[in-house]
# Entry
Amino acid sequence: MGLRLSLRHFHAGLLLLAALCIALGDWAIGSHDPSRILWRILHGAITPDFTNTHEWLPAMGSTIAFAMLGVGAAWALGLLLSLVYHWRLVRWCCASVRGVHELFWALLFLQVFGLHPLTGLLAIALPYSGICARVYAELVEETSGLPERHLRASDRFSRFLWARLTQAWPHIRAYSGYRMECGLRSSAVLGFIGLPTLGYHLETAFRQGQYSQAFALLYAFFLLIGTRHWWLRPRWLPVYAIASLVWLAHTSAPYLSLQPSLLWQFLSHDIWPRALLAGNLAATGDWLWALFHDEGLPGLFNTLLLSLVALVFTLAFSLLQFPWVSRHFVRTRWRWLGHALLVALRSTPEYVLAYIGLVWLGPSMLPAALALSVHNGAIIAFLSGQASNTLLLRTDTPAGIDRYFWTVLPRLYRTVLAFTLYRFEIILRESAILGILGIYTLGFYIDSAFEDFRFDKAMVLIVLTAGLNIVAEISARGLRQHLALRNTPEEI
# Structure
């Protein structure tokens, strides 16, 4: 009874917070003629233009190459870090690097390396290493400890390798494949800041109103991700890695020169407050307080506001959509339609969905909240639908809406809620980065600092973003444990 009351209190508090956030946020439709814009977007969606394929095929190659090398490095480093993830310093370092969105990392490295391939590779590899280390460690921890007890005389590495890792390997392999899908999305979005990936051409097409060309790009991207299970074979990974290195070296030849002096200048001078470099601690404190009051606090407030609303919308979207991929509600020959829709929505990065939403509805929090809830909700709905397919129902179970509310949902809801809380950290990261599109979250102030070449301000705000994500991760984990929810969804 106490647990049910805890769930009720949790939902009541969450809905109350969401209602308060809706009352305080900016949800207005600022577009002059949203219906006409929507019609143009839909017309572009049903009339894709593939005539300029030769122009963006190189961008497709760069998208794959950045993802392959960046995620490959994250796989290797994450697996090594999972061995020592029980060390507090390692946990905090991993939490810090994954708390910063890959676009923020890219903006940082862009100031040092320019359009050099290292900018994109490091922007993906660093946060993904922290993510992989955490998930791999959790998957290893959930394995049986019985085999390890028979290897007490062996060193820790041997026990990890032969007793724990072998049990967790099928789950690690499945998650690593999903992480490549995430890497492809991240790689595509890097084009929005100038790197030669698909995002560069997507932004150009949407900005110029060439929606048919934009959707041709998106459909090609959907095809790439939708066929991941066919072409992403472990035995071909070394070939892919070598081909990716050759491709980036060939296509990025004009940007291959590095200047170590710029790196030293950036690390030793640019990212530090001027007052601190001058030794004036009092002025440094005043500067930090003014930055927090004028930019940090509003950015934090709006980031949390958007994230909480998106969390509730995500949960609602997931509950509405998972029946379309469940065998208990849709016949086999029609379920592929639900799968196709959810694959398209989960394959489109939140940043791209928010960009389309801003073109349609104008600048406000509404497009961002819809983008976050649709993308994350599609992921959770897909996983929840797969989980529902494992449920065994009695032959006399009622059909339709009664089956949904009285048979399937009560048995599946805790899993859906666990998936949603597990995604909250990601929703928070994305809420911050969507500020680059003009929404007043932390990303707006970080992007403005980079545009003004105030790297000291940008670094403080990025550290603030990382701290917010660490707090969110700890809070979400505590909620899952308190509500006795599943702690480690395999592909989330």
